[in-house]
Amino acid sequence: MIDHTHDPAAKSWVPGADAHADFPVQNLPLGVFSPAGEGPRIGTAIGNYCLDLTGLAPMLPLAVREALTLPVLNPLFALPGDARLALRHALFALLTDEAHQSAVEPHLYLADACTLHLPFHIGDYTDFYVGIHHATNIGSLFRPDNPLLPNYKHVPIGYHGRVSSVRLSGTPLVRPKGQIKGPNDPAPRYAPTQRLDFELEMGVWIAGRNALGETQPIAQAWNRIGGLCLLNDWSARDVQAWEYQPLGPFLAKNFLTSVSPWVVTAEALAPFRVAQPARPEGDPEPLAYLDDPVDRQSGALAIALEVRLASRAMREAGQEGMLLSKGQATSMYWTLAQMVTHHASNGCNLAPGDLLGTGTISGPASGSEGSLMEITRNGKQPVALPTGERRAFLEDGDAITLIARAERQGFRSIGFGSCTGVVEPAL
Amino acid sequence: MIDHTHDPAAKSWVPGADAHADFPVQNLPLGVFSPAGEGPRIGTAIGNYCLDLTGLAPMLPLAVREALTLPVLNPLFALPGDARLALRHALFALLTDEAHQSAVEPHLYLADACTLHLPFHIGDYTDFYVGIHHATNIGSLFRPDNPLLPNYKHVPIGYHGRVSSVRLSGTPLVRPKGQIKGPNDPAPRYAPTQRLDFELEMGVWIAGRNALGETQPIAQAWNRIGGLCLLNDWSARDVQAWEYQPLGPFLAKNFLTSVSPWVVTAEALAPFRVAQPARPEGDPEPLAYLDDPVDRQSGALAIALEVRLASRAMREAGQEGMLLSKGQATSMYWTLAQMVTHHASNGCNLAPGDLLGTGTISGPASGSEGSLMEITRNGKQPVALPTGERRAFLEDGDAITLIARAERQGFRSIGFGSCTGVVEPAL
């Protein structure tokens, strides 16, 4: 799977691309953007530029040309993975060989002057719960006597989320209202949430299709991973605590889900596939339908994750976001392939552009928690900001930024851009 | 709201329409159908015929004509309710006044020769849980010590479902596989479900739109009810029991959800709006955002419901489906308006063609339960079929048919057609 497009020495003729933290020529993520004053189209990010693939289509492989005509990635991810690999190779050649510079340059737009769009028409959104340290941390707050339920190490737990409120990074988060009832309140009230939180997740964009009634054998499940993004599963913890039994989270999470705009493809992530961490001694083996030797050897991803918080006062003082958390995507108990195979194990049909969330990714150690609820121990140990402010949960004006970077020795690291949102007051 | 289109004495010139149990001229449900050998289009059902509204558009109000061009109801239900009321009045006039017969007749097709289609492009599907007797019955099986949780009488509990597996009535149900672990099994196994069940629900098709961040005040929430259908929330009880904690049902319910093809409109249901049954003494009052005097007086619906089961042996012997359950839609603890207002109470955006399930509607008495799990007391008291067969849960070859009819003294009753499915063996 590792080919010359992953050569860390490869250079692009696009100014600044080789030095760009996220989008060197080894990345070539896919997305949808509009140049200033123009309509949306499919593109890739190269350094500080967006490259118009719809305009560039005549120079790209025949197999993908038709899929580049509409400003949405679904048709491209309905194609076999070979087509996207051919696209990657073609883009790599066009952007590394100076012979192509004069033909390609007219299709480059400075990213700062472009507007990015949601890359897919999303059919369904499913949120998993594969961050075992998060499940343990948060379970111990909701159910102190019973943090990790007996099914957790057998079933990749997931639930359906809301598609209509999935939005691109940068969409403001209006503080939601909801039913809230503290443990000692005699009755609930309808009020703005007081326990607004983020959740650090990766989003998985599905490629290909299984028909209703068809399962997805795990040996081929990686072919169903189109690419990844960052995902913030904003959560209202007080609403969640009151509503979530017995059917799971609902209004506590469907007011906004933010995703980063660029799809870092499975092809770009190939060098960063690493062995699944060994299950702790005594943990059950996965059932056969979830077990695959290749997935064991290469089902995890070497992706470093960060969360930063910048209050309004911090931003007004020109301060950078404060690091809230730093973790690793290898903290997931189940692989992406296991998530896909389990999802389709009852014949549930997954389609190109379906979105899976991994669930919150927390590490085992303090400093690697993927939500404020964990970081502040349910608000009891607020975080001190550089301004002297304190945060138990998010306050109006707070900006949360998620960052991810695939990193592995011997390879050029590639990034996901960022996924941000600023909290606005309740209406 | 009650106008001459609800006159029980009104007659249509369409042969047999007046005698048709479901689709007399007082109903005029909306749907999408294809005449034999032709493409799909919007239609209404009148007696044993489908009437092509796309073809009839030049005779219909200007306000709806553009919305009739595509073979999907979303644009029509994006319009204000006035437009659909005008459409109803126009159709009523065309189908009752013989002066229009020669112009309209060419657009009539015998229903038996037509293919029906899913009426909407569904953006999101949410399943509620407003059948309080079901919640109590099933809660007592999953949690004997704690059947109805403390939030139930304050919060219209709901959760997100899967859109991709919503299918039209008649789609076969392939018995799904899943992780199953009995209470005494040492470990789970992956196997075909042994506890396949139906759930009798009404489906609600959303009309109109609230933007992300906007709520839907309850005084206007009825305007968001586009129409209703029957919905079967097929469930694998063994999978559900093992997977549902802590995030709710997932693979136990997303292998197929069946809906009936015709949308019985809010306008057609106007005469069947009845007072919400009084809450039992001691129950909490709804919070202000869920409380509206008009909704109290007219928020419930006088709809009679039935479930019939026909095993393969019964069908081969030419026997009708056996009545499994007979209930009333008034057994819902929350109204449709309360469901919509609660769903949008955190700013969650609902769009035309979104689907809400009510949750299983069971009555308080034996014989009115909306699922086999309730009828057979979790399989312990199997039902005897006329063939001598017994059913604890559904077996391969079983056909389940849901039926509903709006009935009220002084009005012509109207029906929903049916929602059926036959169980096929696991692959």
Shape of chain A: globular
Instruction: Identify the most extensive interface between protein chains.
Output: A-B, 65 and 65 residues
CATH fold node name of the largest domain in chain A = Fumarylacetoacetate hydrolase, domain 2
Q: Using the coordinates above, name the CATH class of the largest domain in chain A.
A: Alpha Beta
Oligomerization state of this entry?
Answer: homodimer
Let me know the number of strands of chain A. 26
Assigned CATH superfamily of the largest domain in chain A: Fumarylacetoacetase-like, C-terminal domain
Distance between the termini of chain A: 51 Å
Largest sheet of chain A: 8 strands, mixed
Number of H/I helices of chain A = 12
Low-confidence stretches of chain A: none
Radius of gyration of chain A: 21 Å
Overall SS class of chain A = alpha+beta
What structural keywords apply?
427 residues, globular, Fumarylacetoacetase_N_sf (chains A, B), homodimer, calcium (chains A, B), 26% strand, Fumarylacetoacetate hydrolase, domain 2, five-stranded antiparallel sheet, 12 helices, alpha+beta, SH3 type barrels
